């Protein structure tokens, strides 16, 4: 799998990959992405978004980007638009305990499988951001920089990120002192210092290193 060079990437995610599948008769194409994979605390979240087979959505969703390129306000706005327009969408989670028990990649796959199980429609093809689901019978394409190339994957990145951020804000009230509402479980200096001072909480990933 060749990693695309910066000049290979479109200026914004497109429906080119989806359109190719739609033209082959696959009308339910699911974009998949995760959030929280590198955090020190909290779950990993995975979202699936099935957009309608409509090429005009490129204009309707022209503000959708890889969630890391967006502000919190932009993500919240476009999350509501995506939910309203999608044929189906769902977010699944795998806990910090599950991440410690089986590893982050298997836990990410578990979160995707949970989202798939809860989804109201079964995708006919999955577009994933650099992830493979070896035990999933649905045909799939693992994409390098998928959230920069596919509008469905970018939409999934936004739903995964906003859902996980909301979850972490709720956990911050249960586990004060770590700044979870601000850092969302990621390894900022203040968060790492708080772990050293207070110890691990039940929602911290003990298998993850505190090193910068």
Describe the structure in your own words.
The model has no long low-confidence stretch (mean pLDDT 94). 42% of the residues lie in helices and 14% in strands. The chain has a five-stranded mixed beta sheet with strand order 3-2-1-4-5. The protein has one domain (10-165): 2-Layer Sandwich (Nucleotidyltransferase, domain 5), CATH 3.30.420.10. 44% of the residues are buried. By secondary structure, it is of the alpha/beta class.
Unreliable spans = none
Structural class: alpha/beta
CATH superfamily: Ribonuclease H-like superfamily/Ribonuclease H
Most strands sheet: 5 strands, mixed
Question: Which strands sit side by side, in order, in the main sheet?
Answer: 3-2-1-4-5
The name of the CATH topology is: Nucleotidyltransferase, domain 5
Question: Tell me, what's the shape?
Answer: globular
CATH class category: Alpha Beta
What is the terminal separation in angstroms? Answer: 29 Å
